Structure formats: structure tokens, C-alpha cells
């Protein structure tokens, strides 16, 4: 009888957990669709590619740092949605800049660089590990290893304070102060931009992309992650080919 009571209690808790998980997945998909509607030619496929590449890169890092398969899978369950929502703030950028089929002016680029702050300001308080992963992915994905990225540490502190994190726990946007997930997303984001056709550029040759990432180790990118990326570059290219603007590519076609 005691076992039956405990089993019922466990089942009730599991049901609540599953319901919350399903609501989170629905919420994330709706946010992605919202962003995709603003820029359907690029945003949808772009964030899926960034999520896939980020996940593969993190899996290699986890394997080298002794994480178990179970630990890695739990981390990936946080990383993937965070990567998919990294550009959420672009919903607050006007169309004349977001959809410009040319290179942006300095003034327009300054407006575009507000998108991490805009995206983070849409977040509620940090009440779960997923909340934290998403907020950090949004805020830090344009940070650079040498500290020359954006937004500023002051802006990040202000927003994270509003979300409930004390200032002393908010890392600076440089080096290991950048959360690991955001470091993975940053590398995957740049990789996707270089590999993809844009209105103002053609895709770069693979060799040039690989060499650019290798050269940016220790300046733009976490040097350890950049080395792993270059080591597994063919796999990252394969991941990039999984999603197009028309939807997922069937495995037989890849």
C-alpha cells in the first residue's frame, strides 16, 4: 500500500513535469515562428542550422571533458532551444534594416547591434535552467573571446539584474566570462553566415571558412572550441546542409 501511494505521487509529479515540458516546447516553437515571420528567407533555416552545429560542437567538447552521455543529453536539451532563440531580438529591428539587401551603413549596423538587448528584454525572470540558457544565449552570442564584441558588460549586467541575477554572478563578455553555450552559438552563428548566401555576398568556399575560424581562435572565438570546430569541420558542414529555407533536407538527398 505504501508503495502504491509513492507510485501515485511519483506519477503525478512526472505528469506535471511532462506537461510543463510540452508547454515549453510549444512556447519556444511560437517564439521561433514569430521571428521567422519577420524574416522568412533567412531566420527559420538559419536558427535550425545554428542549433544543430552548436549541439554537435558542444557534444565534442563534452566528450573531451568527461561528461557522461546522460549529462551531455541534459545539457543539449538546454542548448538547442537557446541556440534557436539567439536572434529573437531581431523582431524589434525595423524592416528597412533587417531585410536590407545590401551592406548596412554604420548607423544601421549600430541599430542591428541592439538585437541581443532587445531579445533579452523580452524575457521574464530566471526561474529554470532553460530560462538561464536562453537569456545567456541571446545576450552573449555576439560577445568575442577578446572582449571586442557586443553588448557591453554594463548592458548585460543591467538586464540580468532585472531578470533576477546578482551583478557579481554576471560574467563579462570576454574569455571564460562568456557562458559556454553562448561560445558555441557564437561560433556556429558566424560559420553559418560565412557558409550561406546573402543578398550582399555569395557563400564562401569551405576552405576559406575553415581557415577564417582557425585564424580567429583566441580573438573572436574560444580557442578550444575553434580547434574542435576545425578538427570536425566536415561534420559541421554536413550539419549546415541539413536545413534550407525550404525545410529540412531528406537524408537521402544529403
Characterization of this structure:
- This protein is mostly helical.
- Helices cover 62% and strands 2% of the residues.
- It has twelve helices and two strands.
- It has a two-stranded antiparallel sheet with strand order 1-2.
- Helix 2 (43-64) packs antiparallel against helix 3 and helix 2 (43-64) crosses helix 9.
- The longest helix is centred in the first third of the chain and has 37 residues, at 2-38.
- The radius of gyration is 19 Å and the shape is globular.
- It starts with a helix and ends in a 6-residue tail after the last strand.
Structure at a glance:
The protein has 254 residues and is mostly helical. 62% of the residues lie in helices and 2% in strands. A hairpin with a 2-residue loop joins strand 1 and strand 2 (247-248).
Strand content: under 5%
Give the ordered list of helices and strands: HHHHHHHHHHHHEE
Largest sheet: spatial strand order: 1-2
**What is the mean predicted local confidence, pLDDT?**
87
**Based on helices, strands and strand pairing, what is the structural class?**
mainly alpha
Number of helices, counting only DSSP H or I runs of 4 residues or more: 12
Low-pLDDT residue spans? 250-254
Helix content: 55-70%
Rg estimate, integer Å: 19 Å
Shape: globular
User: CA-to-CA gap between the ends?
Assistant: 55 Å
Number of strands: 2
The biggest sheet amounts to: 2 strands, antiparallel
Amino acid at each position: 500500500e505504501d508503495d502504491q501511494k509513492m507510485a501515485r505521487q511519483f506519477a503525478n509529479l512526472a505528469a506535471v513535469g511532462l506537461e510543463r515540458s510540452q508547454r515549453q516546447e510549444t512556447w519556444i516553437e511560437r517564439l521561433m515562428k514569430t521571428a521567422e515571420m519577420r524574416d522568412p528567407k533567412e531566420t527559420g533555416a538559419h536558427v535550425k542550422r545554428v542549433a544543430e552545429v552548436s549541439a554537435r560542437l558542444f557534444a565534442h567538447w563534452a566528450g573531451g571533458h568527461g561528461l557522461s552521455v546522460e549529462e551531455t543529453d541534459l545539457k543539449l536539451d538546454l542548448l538547442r532551444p537557446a541556440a534557436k532563440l539567439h536572434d529573437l531580438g531581431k523582431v524589434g529591428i525595423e524592416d528597412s534594416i533587417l531585410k536590407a539587401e545590401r551592406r548596412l551603413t554604420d548607423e544601421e549596423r549600430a541599430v542591428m547591434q541592439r538585437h541581443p538587448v532587445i531579445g533579452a528584454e523580452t524575457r521574464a525572470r530566471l526561474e529554470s535552467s532553460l530560462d538561464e540558457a536562453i537569456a545567456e544565449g541571446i545576450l552573449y552570442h555576439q560577445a568575442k573571446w577578446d572582449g571586442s564584441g557586443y553588448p557591453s558588460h554594463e548592458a548585460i549586467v543591467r538586464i540580468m539584474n532585472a531578470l533576477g541575477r546578482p551583478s557579481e554572478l554576471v560574467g563579462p563578455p570576454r574569455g571564460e566570462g562568456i557562458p559556454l553555450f553562448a561560445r558555441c552559438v557564437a561560433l556556429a552563428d558566424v560559420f553559418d553566415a560565412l557558409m550561406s548566401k546573402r543578398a550582399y555576398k555569395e557563400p564562401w568556399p569551405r576552405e576559406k571558412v575553415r581557415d577564417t575560424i582557425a585564424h580567429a581562435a583566441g580573438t573572436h572565438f574560444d580557442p578550444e572550441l575553434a580547434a574542435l570546430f576545425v578538427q570536425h569541420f566536415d561534420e559541421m558542414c554536413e550539419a549546415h546542409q541539413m536545413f534550407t529555407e525550404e525545410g529540412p533536407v531528406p537524408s537521402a538527398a544529403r
